[in-house]
Design goal:
The protein is of the alpha+beta class. 35% of the residues lie in helices and 17% in strands. Strands 7, 9, 10, 11, 12 and 13 form a 6-stranded mixed β-sheet that branches.
Length: 344
């Protein structure tokens, strides 16, 4: 007599006779559907009635279920040990191996499920924004109007005016507002909250800078005859050196949307904090570590630098006012859309 353990129905043309619930007889084969709990005990009772018994284990697709695998192992152990059926050492060995293999398979299967689940979770839930974020240069969907996120800031968008190193309103600045990526703006809000407690406000000169503005700078740098603003912004360096010495470049971190040029505004005096140098001054005096300034001026630079670093911004070695969000969301995209209020 054969006893076949199965996790479901065995399709066969031979008619089956149901002996007990979950246990059927097909010819000389007892089929025990152990996916049904009651059939386990019923199959054991029937199996014990035969003096000679051959056990056959079939593992259908359902065997990948950990509960099914344990049921098969449990049933085999009951047959061999509880009812003292005729067996050989090899059969005991087979049963022990099958039981251990089942447990090991369950562990591997469950661990794999957890691992796959974790990876899917990271892909589907942790990084959905990054996965769906548009990197089209003309798409401002990842940007915000800075004043809407950081309402306490003061803005003096220099490139919307003619008071800048070029002397003209710069291409791409259609409105005097600052734009930034949402991530950078939210980080700057924390900076603003901190400096407000110190009696300051943030004053922003520039944030997102479209590529067309950078192109304007490059064109201007190649016009050797236009030196209208030299005495204000680059008195110590010849204009022909601005491009070779990287004061002006063909690509700017500002165009990636997470860089800001700013200073501190003292609420007690109603004036900008004295940093020992002006915004956009081309020269060594603008380096954050420049020491030929007063202790108070240097201290003011350090206050701004420290609070920006605290909230995830990294400074630039050559400009005390320039900071970029360290984990910027668009490290490789240089955007082209103009500076203006964004449509919601």
């Amino acid at each position: 007599m054969n006893v076949v353990l199965t996790g479901g129905h065995v399709h066969d043309s031979e008619p089956a006779i149901e002996l007990l619930k979950g246990v059927t007889l097909k010819g000389k084969t007892i089929l025990a559907d152990i996916s049904t709990p009651a059939s386990i005990s019923n199959a054991i009772l029937l199996s014990a009635s035969f003096s000679e018994l051959k056990i056959t284990v079939t593992l259908p697709r359902a065997s990948t279920n950990w509960l099914f695998a344990l049921r098969i192992s449990f049933y085999l152990l009951l047959l061999l040990f509880t009812f003292n059926l005729p067996t050989t050492p090899n059969e005991y060995n087979f049963t022990a191996k099958f039981f251990i293999k089942s447990l090991r398979g369950v562990f591997i299967m469950e661990f794999t499920k957890v691992l796959i689940g974790a990876l899917l979770g990271v892909f589907l839930f942790v990084t959905p924004v990054a996965a769906q974020r548009s990197t089209a240069p003309n798409d401002p969907s990842g940007f915000v109007v800075l004043a809407e996120v950081v309402p306490d800031i003061i803005q003096e968008i220099r490139y919307y005016s003619t008071y800048n190193f070029v002397g003209d309103k710069i291409d791409g600045y259609e409105m005097p507002c600052a734009l930034m990526t949402r991530e950078a703006a939210e980080a700057l809000k924390k900076v603003s909250d901190d400096v407000m407690k110190m009696g300051y406000r943030l004053k922003v000169y520039d944030a997102y800078r479209p590529q067309m503005a950078v192109n304007h700078f490059v064109r201007w740098s190649k016009d050797s005859g236009d030196k209208r603003m030299k005495k204000y912004f680059y008195p110590e360096i010849d204009k022909s050196r601005l491009f070779p010495e990287d004061y002006i470049m063909e690509k700017s971190g500002h165009s990636r949307g997470s860089t800001v040029d700013l200073t501190l505004f003292d609420m007690k005096t109603g004036k900008e904090v004295d940093m020992g140098g002006t915004f956009d001054y081309f020269g060594e005096k603008s380096h954050p570590d420049y020491k030929k300034i007063t202790k108070t001026q240097y201290k003011n630079r350090i206050i701004l630098r420290n609070v920006m670093i605290k909230h995830g911004f990294k400074p630039l070695y050559s400009e005390w006012w320039h900071f970029t969000l360290e984990n910027e969301p668009y490290p490789d995209t240089y955007f082209t859309f103009p500076v203006k209020l964004l449509q919601k």
